[in-house]
Amino acid sequence: MESKKKYKLTIVEPSVIITQGLKALFAPHPEFEIINCYSDFSHFLERINSSKTNIILMNPSLIDYQKRMNIKSHFSSLPDVILFAIEYNYIESEVLKQYNGTIEITDDIATIVRKLKQAIENNQENSENGDNYELSDREIEILTSVARGLTNKEIADLHNISIHTVISHRKNITRKTGIKTVSGLTVYAMLNNLIDQSDIE
Amino acid sequence: MKLADMLLANYKLLLVLNRFDIHLGFGEKSIEEVCNKRGIPTSLFLLVCNVYSFSDYLPPKDKLQSFNAKDLIQYLHSSHAYYKEKSIPEINKKLTAIVTRINSKAALMLQRFYDDYQTEVLNHFNYEETVAFPYVDSLLNGNICKEYSISKFEENHSNIEEKLNDLKNIIIKYLPDADSPEELNDLLINLFELEDDLEKHTLIEDKILIPIVSQLELRK
C-alpha cells in the first residue's frame, strides 16, 4: 500500500511567472503533483467535469466580479475539492471567506505546504464517512428497479418515496459504483446476481 | 524539430502520423520537410500534435486560418476509418473471446452492452461523415445552407464516453475471471487506449474544426 497519499493540484493563474514559480517550489514535494495549469478560469471550467484534482490554487480575480461571491457553485462536480486563493492583489475579505485558505505572494514553500496540509486535514474531518462505497440495502433495491428499466416515477411509486429521493439514491449509486448509464447498471445488477435475465426481457 | 524526436518524446503521436499518411523511415528530416513532402500543412499537423500531447492546449486563433479545412476533414476521416476498421473490431474480438469462455448470462449481457456501444459510436461517425463533413465541404465551396449549422454538431459525444467508462468500470470491478487475467488486462489496455484516443479526437473536433467552421459561417 502507498504510505503517502498524493494530492493532485490545479493552478488557475494568469501570471506565467507565478505559475512557473509555484511549479518550481512544489517540485521537491512529490506528495503534491501539479496536474494542470490554466491561465483563464473559463478554460478550466470547460474541463472541470473530467478533472481529478484534489486541490485548486486559484487567483480569485479571474472570476467576474459578480460571480465571485458564489464560487463553490462552479465546483459542484468536485464536492471534496480544496480551494486556495492565490493572493497578490486586493481581494475583498468576503470573497476570500469562501476559499479553504490563502497563499500569499510572500509565503515560502514550507508555509504553503503547511497551509495545504492543514486544509486537507480539516476537509477530511468534515466529509462524512466518504470511504463507504458499499451500496446500502435501499440503494440495492433502487438499483434493481433501475436495471429492470423502470422510470424514476415508477420507482418512486413502487417504493413509496418521492422522485427527488429516487434521484438522490441514483446519484449515490453512480458515485459508489462509477457506473453512469442505465444499461451499464443493468449489467452490474446481473453480474452481482441482483436480477435475472427474465427480469429485463 | 526533427520528426523522429517528436515521436520519441510522445509515442502516441504515431497514431497521428498514420492518419496523415506519413510513413516511418524519414531519417533525420524535420517536421516541416516531411509535411512539405507529403503535401500536408505543417501548421495543421502541429496543431493536431499539440492537442494530442498537452491536455490543456488551446489552439491560437490565428493558427486556425493557416490551412485549408479540407485537410483537417481528411484527417478526421482517416481517424474514423481507424476506429471503425481497427480499434473497435479488435476490442470486440477480444471481448467476444472472453465472453464465450466465461459463458454466463451476465457475460452475454456485457457483450450486448458493448454491441450497443459499438452501434452508437458507429452511428455517430456515420452522422459526421454523411451530414457534418459534407456540410463543411459545401461551406468551403461557397454554398450557403440555412437548415444546418455546426452548433448542432457535438450533441451526442457525452453519452458515448459514459458507456465506454462504464464498460471499463464493470470489467475492472465486477467481471469475475480467474482463468485468464492477461486476456482481461489486454482488453482493458485497449479500452483505455481507445478512450484516450477518442478524447483527443473530440478535442480536435471541438477546438479546431468547430471554431474554423463557425468562422466560415460568419462570413456568409
Task: Report on the architecture of this protein.
The complex is a heterodimer of chains A (201) and B (220). In chain A, 44% of the residues lie in helices and 13% in strands. In chain A, helix 1 links the parallel strand 1 and strand 2 (32-38). Chain A is elongated and about 65 Å long. Chain A has 201 residues and is of the alpha/beta class. Chain A folds into two domains: 7-126, Response regulator (Rossmann fold), CATH 3.40.50.2300; 137-200, Arc Repressor Mutant, subunit A (Orthogonal Bundle), CATH 1.10.10.10. In chain A, helix 5 (137-147) packs across helix 8. In chain A, strands 2-1-3-4-5 form a five-stranded parallel β-sheet. The model of chain A has no long low-confidence stretch (mean pLDDT 86). Chain B is mostly helical. Chain B has two domains: 3-62, no CATH class; 68-219. Chain B contains eight helices and no strands. Chain B has helices at 3-9, 13-19, 31-38, 42-53, 69-102, 105-140, 157-174, 181-219. The model of chain B has no long low-confidence stretch (mean pLDDT 88). The chains are: A alpha/beta (201), B mainly alpha (220). At the A-B interface, strand 2 and helix 8 of A face helix 6 and helix 7 of B.
